[in-house]
Amino acid sequence: MPAASLLPLFGSAPGPGTLGGPAGSGAGGGGRKAASPGAFRLTEKFVLLLVFSAFITLCFGAIFFLPDSSKLLSGVFFHSAALQPPPPPPGGQPRAPPQPGGGPAAAVAAGGAGSLERIRADHERALREAKETLQKLPEEIRRDIRQDKEKLLQDARDRKEAGAPGLPQRLFRQPVGAVGQEPADPDVRQRREKIKEMMKHAWDNYKRYAWGLNELKPISKQGHSSNLFGNIQGATIVDALDTLYIMEMKEEFKEAKEWVEKNLDFNVNAEISVFEVNIRFVGGLLSAYYLSGEEVFRKKAVELGEKLLPAFNTPTGIPWALLNIKSGIGRNWPWASGGSSILAEFGTLHLEFVHLSHLSGNPVFAEKVMNIRKVLNRLDKPEGLYPNYLNPSSGQWGQHHVSIGGLGDSFYEYLLKAWLMSDKTDEDGKKMYYDAVQAIEAHLIRKSGGGLTYIAEWKGGLLEHKMGHLTCFAGGMFALGADGAPNDKTGHHIELGAEIARTCHESYDRTRMKLGPEAFRFDGGVEAIATRQNEKYYILRPEVIETYMYMWRLTHDPKYRQWGWEAVEALEKHCRVDGGYSGIRDVYNNHESHDDVQQSFFLSETLKYLYLLFSEDDLLPFEHWVFNTEAHPLPILHKDDGNKEENQK
Ligand code: DMJ
């Protein structure tokens, strides 16, 4: 209460009546003899006037400078100047209703005239309270302050018990398939156990040598920090939470959760990659919440989502790649064509942001990603293809480089999964996905002389016959999307997925270590082989195993489990070291040269996809879950569960 903070003035001031009391009774009259009223009349009057005006000045000054005085003053002096509703958002979209936790600015923005009235009434009430307080005895004011403090403390306690501050209460219902049955076949069970043991080795060593840091250096046995996360810490913990959960590593999950509760801190001065933080941290927290129902994960996910919002403050709403989460200042990678944002980065926020709106009740997250769709839909696409670079200021494409691997990949994945996650109601996402696949087939997919299907890259109309390890995820994507393929193309899309899986398996099989290189080529007399030294490394990436997992689930062809097991053996032979798992510098070499990094996606993706490959289909079934691009499972928002509106945002 603003006027309550005037108390110090009263605390040291004389009691009521002192100012007008008999002279000499106060401390100031100590040396003065009683005198006839007439002798000091003028001087006394003058002194009294001075004291009185000093007191008034102090009171008035206090109103200006004490923390809550703005409430008072705005009611008195500033009336409605600051209360004009802001202009409508670009595109003339209806403005969202006020949301819980949206704050006064959001209320003004959303509520229009009603909000103005409310705020004016608030100011008048504050003024009235201030006047009443000025008339109270100091003892009464002290008592009021005590009561206010107690109430604040109690409110804080209540909020803690009720869950996240500002978040609506939510009844948690665990989605179907958060736990599955043991595999019936004992060999499969044994293989799955082995993968769990690998997870334990990776986790225990991270815990021993790098606990709380982002990643582990398994050779030098210390923490590894990547500048993708600024100084946000704990990437491996957050990325691994859901893998620990589905592998039923309960103790480890519990310690990870406790770390998140006590240490995961986003109030840091950090420039982060919006994409990486979204797919790993937001995605990891969302999955952990949906699997376990622990409120802390919902709260942290929404808190982080809010920190990412300033990235969208660009003329088009296409977000920056990099954002300082303290200052809210964004920028793009200096190397990206003409200051562009990257397709795979701004196009890989959709799933998480729709879920953030779902869990927070705040539509702003979904609005931001829907706007990206609108911008893309307004643009002409060369040959129906999406270039990897888009300038967030001009809204124009940068360099015409198209890739289904690095820089482009998960944009396509998220179009398909947005449709699936919406319980197949997001028709826009569906159309964009199948149109894009048609253009990719026409212009990028080729067959080698030896019969291997591959996806080339496109540079201004010219093909580079190279396929990245990252591109191998597309096998799983084509198969997953087969069901909805237009013009009776279901079988064709499954076949396309199978062909990409085979090509990617060849890229592993043609190396000495049976692990795939970062990129492989189909020119200069080679097929599915890396020819450049700087493309021969393997950094524990998941994409090939991811495709095996999808192909297994959708076809139950045993070769996919066989290929997955070959990868397990190769990982154990070449990547496992005392201190965890490490990437390899050259997979064609006889001897391992380790890169000394245990990537967080090894725990979140590679090991999870392997575990699912050797699980029954009832664990995280495709009818109920989609995986984000970091393999974090997100539940499908079924329309009969009352999610119709959510799906249409
Ligand atoms: C992961 O972080 C994600 O899969 C992302 O989409 C691509 N790169 C890595 C794994 O290779």
From TrEMBL:
The membrane-topology field of this record reads: Single-pass type II membrane protein
Respond yes or no to whether keyword Hydrolase is given for this record.
Answer: yes
Bias-annotated ranges (Pro residues): 84-101
Q: Where does this protein reside within or beyond the cell?
A: Endomembrane system
Q: Which SUPFAM superfamilies match?
A: Seven-hairpin glycosidases (SSF48225)
Pfam families associated with the record: Glyco_hydro_47
Sites binding Ca(2+) sit at T629
Q: Which Gene3D superfamilies match?
A: 1.50.10.10
Residue pairs linked by disulfide bridges in the UniProt entry:
C472-C504
- InterPro entries from the UniProt entry: 6hp_glycosidase-like_sf (IPR012341), Glyco_hydro_47 (IPR001382), Glycosyl_Hydrolase_47 (IPR050749), Seven-hairpin_glycosidases (IPR036026)
The keyword Signal is annotated on this UniProt entry = no
Could you tell me the EC number(s) of this protein?
3.2.1.-
Task: Give the record's pathway.
Answer: Protein modification; protein glycosylation
Q: Catalytic center at which residues?
A: E276, D409, E518, E543
From the UniProt record, which GO molecular function terms apply?
calcium ion binding; mannosyl-oligosaccharide 1,2-alpha-mannosidase activity
Q: Which GO terms describe its cellular component?
A: endoplasmic reticulum; extracellular exosome; Golgi membrane
Catalysis: reaction(s)? N(4)-(alpha-D-Man-(1->2)-alpha-D-Man-(1->2)-alpha-D-Man-(1->3)-[alpha-D-Man-(1->3)-[alpha-D-Man-(1->2)-alpha-D-Man-(1->6)]-alpha-D-Man-(1->6)]-beta-D-Man-(1->4)-beta-D-GlcNAc-(1->4)-beta-D-GlcNAc)-L-asparaginyl-[protein] (N-glucan mannose isomer 8A1,2,3B1,3) + 3 H2O = N(4)-(alpha-D-Man-(1->3)-[alpha-D-Man-(1->3)-[alpha-D-Man-(1->6)]-alpha-D-Man-(1->6)]-beta-D-Man-(1->4)-beta-D-GlcNAc-(1->4)-beta-D-GlcNAc)-L-asparaginyl-[protein] (N-glucan mannose isomer 5A1,2) + 3 beta-D-mannose; N(4)-(alpha-D-Man-(1->2)-alpha-D-Man-(1->2)-alpha-D-Man-(1->3)-[alpha-D-Man-(1->2)-alpha-D-Man-(1->3)-[alpha-D-Man-(1->2)-alpha-D-Man-(1->6)]-alpha-D-Man-(1->6)]-beta-D-Man-(1->4)-beta-D-GlcNAc-(1->4)-beta-D-GlcNAc)-L-asparaginyl-[protein] (N-glucan mannose isomer 9A1,2,3B1,2,3) + 4 H2O = N(4)-(alpha-D-Man-(1->3)-[alpha-D-Man-(1->3)-[alpha-D-Man-(1->6)]-alpha-D-Man-(1->6)]-beta-D-Man-(1->4)-beta-D-GlcNAc-(1->4)-beta-D-GlcNAc)-L-asparaginyl-[protein] (N-glucan mannose isomer 5A1,2) + 4 beta-D-mannose
User: Which EC main class describes this enzyme?
Assistant: hydrolase
Which family does the UniProt entry place this protein in?
A: Belongs to the glycosyl hydrolase 47 family.
Protein name in UniProt: alpha-1,2-Mannosidase
Originating species? Pipra filicauda
Please name the gene that encodes this protein.
MAN1A1
